[in-house]
Specification:
- Two copies of one chain form a homodimer.
- Chain A is α/β, with parallel strands linked by helices and about 425 residues long.
- Chain A has helices spanning about 5-15, 45-60, 65, 70-80, 95-110, 125-140, 150-155, 180-185, 280-290, 295-320, 360-365, 390-405; strands spanning about 25, 30, 40, 90-95, 120, 145, 160-165, 190-195, 215, 230-235, 325, 340, 370, 375, 380-385.
- A seven-stranded mixed beta sheet of chain A has the order 4-10-9-8-7-5-6, sandwiched between helices. A four-stranded antiparallel beta sheet of chain A has the order 11-12-15-14, covered by helices on one side.
- In chain A, helix 8 (about 180-185) links the parallel strand 7 and strand 8 (about 190-195).
- In chain A, helix 2 runs antiparallel to helix 9 (about 280-290), helix 4 (about 70-80) packs parallel to helix 9 (about 280-290) and helix 5 (about 95-110) packs parallel to helix 6.
- Chain A is globular, with a radius of gyration of 23 Å.
- At the A-B interface, helix 2, helix 5, helix 6 and helix 9 of A face helix 2, helix 5, helix 6 and helix 9 of B.
Chain lengths: ~425, ~425
């Protein structure tokens, strides 16, 4: 057993979150793709069977009241709240992240003062945020300014209405400075909207503490809500009265069953709702969130950093020099819960024509039970979910990566698959 | 056994759809609320268990390809297509009805010619359509004109950009003239958007045949997709290239995994997608749609009309004269698949102060196993789902309604519950 494997064993033995793994359905594979789709929490199948078979099948329409379907969006929002540092009553679950970005951006432009007609957006963001920001700008008569997060403070002005930022970059795993950037946005008199898709459930967000205005996020990554589970919207309580939604569906009406022809928005987080909530997915998410009972998010962050530190160390030890380079910052303050390795043929390999190999490398890893994902054109992404990934997993993943890149297929001079 | 009960038995004996009932999970109650939440199709629990346990739990991220998750929105759209008279490739499933109304209305305003700046909307529509239409008008610089469907032809002009109509009124069950109104809208050079929530799965819609431009609908009523199951959007094939979505999420990109910062819309129905599809609910819907295998929608319509005819006849026979009045048209061409009965204390009862009794009447019906619903302030709604409601159910429902309204609690002179 290698020195790193021995250390992994010791680290797992003292891991205070180690027991959480038993609350997930996992197999012998090392699952490092929880930053894309979280693993199945063991409580979900039984809950979903009850929602389908009893709540829908037997109680049918009565479940809107008796099974708490109607109030699920706010109730589940309050389960997410402590994970992102929010007091209750500010988060509502529903719709996709893209739809929530649209609601948030249009609403904040409507809150902005006279003469503020620019939306600043992270140009390196997950694409959907940029596309939706462009639509929100077009529909509100604003100009879109795509810049890197580092450039944000320099472009803020009296014309800035809103700034949309990602807490963690989906590609590189870089953690952006939420407190500092939010303060800069506020100093310019503008409103900050944060996308928490890649941070919620992986590290402390501190929405209330840092005075974030609005935030959105998905629930199928570190929150393990299942494929395409509903997203959420946070509107800080003192802004809720000014939240003027571009999607004022009947679920956000002050009296939804009054069936009135005039729209009158509800008070509170409910105002962020739109249409009938998607109950099956929503209640699967509610069951999934039970794994967080008694889990301090600071302990999650500490383990996350230990896992990614250890992974980087193992990669250095096992992967031949120069074959991969990390795109993820070394500094803890700039790192989310994933490691992105650039893996290109120009890095120590002589594959003809510089054809991309990262996609094929990831296929080999998956065949050997190490599941990460590939992002075009040359990035291997590995996500570390502290609730179910252990240190032995990390050592094995790096070892398999090293062996794969040392194999004939991907070494210098091999032209076998250059087609 | 009454004459009506004998007739019900005979009608059930020759009902060619009677066997379909066995494909649903039902009990001894008469479920006449399928126009709000369809009953559970028997195929759903097993399918959902497989989606959760195997597809998510075991295959995890691989299911996006291997379990067909990624293509579900179009695939399931094509399952709905024959039920609404659409050729394949024009329907995409996802988001709520409200969100789809927004996409549709903004897109059609963008298709409209110069000088067209009015959106005409059914003032008697389900409220969310009106709220969303108001938002779409506000965000596109249009004026909203709420009118009754009968008034629509008279207000169409060279300024009309779009007309949003409901195929069947949610409250009265009135079926509107989709072919005639669509032709009138087209004659005025405008675009017609139809909301099919209360018609799809209950009667032939004929989207292609009648040249409807865009349409939306939910899937949890007569399509039995489950609580809050995803809605759908129809964009006629020759309009798809001009469909310019206000919600251009990454799922509607021509190359979603290219992760490009510039938006380029996909061709076809896919363009109506937004964010990551909600897989659990979507695949539950896919299983639910299997009950339609081999069911001609014309047979559904014939049985639906026979059921509502018979219900109205039984109500006349069993309910004391003048205690209820039907808001649902008698003419078949104007009737959907529900019957709405106005039930107010002024109708033959001397309840003090004219206090509403419909809500209490519905409670008693539900206690006696006849499940309809109540719409403020005085409407009893009964939905007739031809796939699982039989004629004996209809006779029993009317009989229980008659007995309830004949009981002391609701008869003339009773002031017991006037608080």
């Amino acid at each position: 057993m290698s020195e790193l494997a021995v250390r992994a064993e010791k680290l797992d033995a003292v891991d205070e979150l180690a027991a959480k793994r038993a609350e997930f359905v996992l197999d012998e594979a090392v699952y490092l793709d929880g930053n894309s789709l979280g693993a199945l929490p063991a409580a979900v199948p039984g809950r979903v069977a009850d929602v389908v078979g009893r709540q829908w099948g037997e109680l049918r329409i009565r479940s809107w009241d008796e099974s708490g379907w109607w109030t699920a969006p706010e109730r589940i929002g309050d389960l997410i709240a402590p994970l992102v540092g929010a007091a209750p009553g500010q988060i509502v679950v529903g719709d996709s992240t893209s739809v929530n970005v649209f609601k948030a951006l249009v609403a904040v432009v409507r809150m902005a003062g006279e003469g503020r007609d620019e939306i600043v957006v992270d140009a390196t963001t997950f694409p959907t945020d940029g596309y939706i920001a462009e639509s929100a700008a077009r529909m509100t008569g604003c100009t879109l300014r795509p810049v890197t997060p580092a450039e944000v403070p320099g472009v803020l002005s009296g014309r800035t209405a809103a700034v949309l930022l990602n807490h963690v970059d989906y590609r590189t795993g870089r953690l952006h400075d939420l407190p500092g950037l939010t303060a800069a946005v506020h100093a310019a008199g503008a409103v900050a909207v944060w996308d928490l898709c890649h941070s919620a459930g992986a590290l402390p967000v501190g929405l209330d503490e840092h005075g974030v205005d609005l935030a959105v996020g998905c629930t199928y990554k570190y929150l393990n809500g299942g494929p395409g589970s509903p997203a959420y919207l946070y509107v800080r309580s003192d802004l809720q009265d000014r939240f003027d939604s571009p999607l004022p569906g009947w679920n956000s009406h002050a009296e939804p069953f009054g069936m009135r022809s005039a729209y009158e928005p509800a008070a509170g987080a409910v105002r962020g709702r739109v249409g009938t909530p998607d109950i099956l997915s929503m209640l699967a998410l509610e069951a999934a969130l039970e794994v967080w009972d008694g889990v301090p998010i600071d302990a999650v962050r500490a383990k996350s950093l230990a896992l990614t530190d250890f992974f980087l160390e193992c990669v250095s030890a096992y992967v031949p020099e120069g074959r991969v380079e990390s795109l993820t910052p070394v500094a803890h303050g700039e790192r989310g819960s994933q490691v992105a390795l650039r893996c290109s043929p120009t890095l120590g390999s002589a594959r003809a024509g510089g054809a991309p190999i990262a996609g094929e490398v990831m296929k080999r890893l998956i065949e050997r039970g190490v599941v990460g994902d590939f992002r075009h054109p040359d990035v291997l992404r590995f996500g570390f979910t502290p609730l179910y990934v252990g240190f032995a997993d990390v050592e094995r993943a790096a070892r398999v990566l090293g062996e794969t890149l040392s194999a004939g297929e991907f070494t210098a001079g091999s032209g076998r698959r250059t087609g």
